[in-house]
Specification:
- The protein is of the alpha/beta class.
- The protein is about 45% helix and about 15% strand.
- It contains 21 helices and 16 strands.
- A 10-stranded mixed sheet has the order 1-4-5-6-3-2-7-8-9-10, sandwiched between helices.
- It is globular, with a radius of gyration of 24 Å.
Length: about 550
């Protein structure tokens, strides 16, 4: 590693690395964001502090990355090094660093000709090759910075498996699954990896190799760990090829993506002490937030029950269920005091995204008094969530998911992490049996939950939904829509006619956000690593 004319030096970086206990490898960060993993990495930085450092590829073509450079939140350290071995041999890599006031630093590796994702870190035809280059670059970086075998390396998902493979001989390794997306890297490993990646050149996928070789394998939620072993979307569609290795996966649960505000903590105390006073506080806060929205929106919402469905427009989020369920409810009862905001952002290529957005906009055009559709990030999003009564999540699968947002009550499809987090009020049928796996009947309910009954064509139907084909002739999709419509109708009735029940739901949602801490998650990882050190001592 060769220092440029800059205040940074290899000694400086070595000092930052040496006191730490671990190196987190993340493909996306808050500086190069994409999915919910961004929210996870953001919290990891804030919670774990100087106990670790984060290492990520620098996605120079992303507009958000350039903006962070322009704002001075990411700086060039002036250090660079050449990659050796057979993976992009002789290619130059420079080192950038986060420059904000968060305790954990992020070191970004910018390699010539690699990491060209736009608009997200994953949208590049060279993603498979880039993961190999990242693995080689991380190894060179840690060696030059003087990393020791006492520091374990903590990767996430298939994109970091090549790095874990390279570092297994010098460090203990952890692989955390935020999803089960996978890739077969044999062609790229043979063409670009050469002698660096012999284990990747066979018939096994990256995740299969990672699941076998990592000292510790974890996932982000007990519900997701169960879902990986039992839910057809995983066992027969997305992760069928991993089922024989699932016994290695240990759930170590994420905490909340955002801390509970003092206002919401005080509201929880008030609701617990005096439900009527708490409800008056909720109503006052909701009215104030709605008045603070743009007038054109505030006047449309009025005093109706406000439901927000948000997130990336991808097959996973199943916004189509919310769309068709809302259409079903409003067609039955045009005077229902419901207002739905579909606050979505692009999530896939234009060819896939445009039909999905058109479907959303068609609902808003059909029911202009009851539905608002936005496209892209909105400046008033935080105010909108303060104004909302419910947050609808109809996910096809959800490893963890941010079910809770302040005092907003979630309406969720009881799957994976959502089922684990939300204690559903009065669940019925399949929803009741799933809810009973995780929650006691005497605990406060923290949201509404729905789940469609099984169908004879469920696996084929789920496979179609995963590819974005949410069509009326899909029996499982129709069942999802019907179940969501019932939950939506119930949600409106509770908010308007059963205020004490709604108040208890808000209290349950607020209490569900307390007592969960990222340091508890870290403690679980550290304990598993200590066991791994006993099982596999390093020379």
């Amino acid at each position: 590693m060769v220092a440029q004319a800059n205040s940074w030096s290899t000694t400086t970086i070595s000092r930052l690395l040496h006191p730490c206990e671990f190196h987190l490898l993340r493909w996306e960060t808050e500086f190069t964001p994409c999915t919910g993993i961004t929210a996870v990495s953001k919290q990891e930085r804030r919670a774990f502090g100087r106990r670790g450092v984060m290492i990520a590829p620098w996605q120079s073509r992303m507009k958000t990355a350039q903006a962070k450079l322009d704002q001075g939140l990411v700086v060039d350290t002036g250090l660079s090094f050449n990659l050796s071995g057979s993976c992009a041999q002789g290619t130059r890599a420079r080192v950038l660093r986060s420059n904000d006031d968060v305790a954990m630093p992020v070191f970004f590796l910018d390699v010539e000709g690699a990491f060209q994702g736009t608009p997200t870190p994953y949208d590049t035809p060279d993603l498979a090759r880039d993961t190999l280059i990242f693995g080689a670059a991380v190894e060179e970086f840690l060696r030059a910075a003087g990393a020791t075998s006492r520091e374990f390396v903590w990767g996430a998902d298939w994109q970091t498996v090549p790095a874990l493979v390279r570092l297994r001989g010098s460090h203990h390794t952890v692989l955390t699954l935020h999803n089960e997306f996978d890739a077969w890297l044999a062609h790229e490993a043979a063409e670009h990896g050469g002698s660096l990646y012999p284990s990747l050149q066979g018939r096994e996928t990256a995740l299969r190799i990672g699941l076998k070789q990592a000292d510790v394998v974890t996932t982000v939620n007990r519900g997701y760990a169960r879902g990986l072993r039992t839910e057809p979307i995983h066992t027969q569609v997305m992760a069928a090829h991993l089922q024989d290795l699932m016994s290695r996966v240990v759930p170590v649960e994420n905490a909340n993506f955002t801390p509970l505000s003092q206002h919401d903590a005080d509201l929880a105390k008030l609701l617990a002490a005096d439900l009527d006073l708490g409800l008056r506080s909720i109503d006052g806060s909701r009215r104030q937030a709605r008045r603070s929205l743009p007038e054109a929106i505030s006047s449309r919402i009025g005093d109706r029950v406000l439901v927000v469905a948000m997130g990336r427009r991808v097959a996973q989020k199943l916004h189509e269920v919310v769309i068709e369920g809302t259409r079903e409810v409003l067609s039955r009862n045009p005077d229902l005091p419901l207002f739905l905001v579909l606050a979505t952002v692009p999530g896939e290529s234009e060819a896939i995204d445009e039909p999905r957005l058109a479907r959303i906009e068609a609902l808003a055009k059909e029911f202009p008094r009851n539905v608002l559709a936005t496209n892209g990030r909105i400046a008033y999003y935080e105010t909108l969530m303060h104004a909302a009564d419910y947050n609808a999540m109809a996910s096809l699968y959800e490893p963890h998911g941010g079910a809770f947002e302040g005092s907003v009550v979630p309406i969720v499809r009881l799957i994976d992490g959502l089922a684990r987090q939300v204690n559903a009020l009065e669940p019925a049928g399949r929803a009741a049996s799933i809810n009973a796996l995780w929650h006691n009947p005497w605990d406060l309910p923290s949201g509404l939950g729905f789940r469609e009954p099984g169908t004879a064509t469920e696996v084929a139907d789920l496979r179609a939904l995963l590819t974005g084909r949410a069509e009326p002739d899909n029996p499982t999709f129709r069942a999802m829509v019907s179940a969501f419509a019932d939950a939506l109708q119930t949600a409106v009735a509770i908010r308007r006619d059963r205020p004490h029940v709604y108040g208890r739901l808000v209290l349950g949602a607020l209490q569900a956000q307390t007592g969960r801490d990222w340091l508890i998650q870290l403690g679980g990882i550290l304990s598993l690593v200590e066991q791994a050190r006993i099982r596999r001592p390093l020379a």
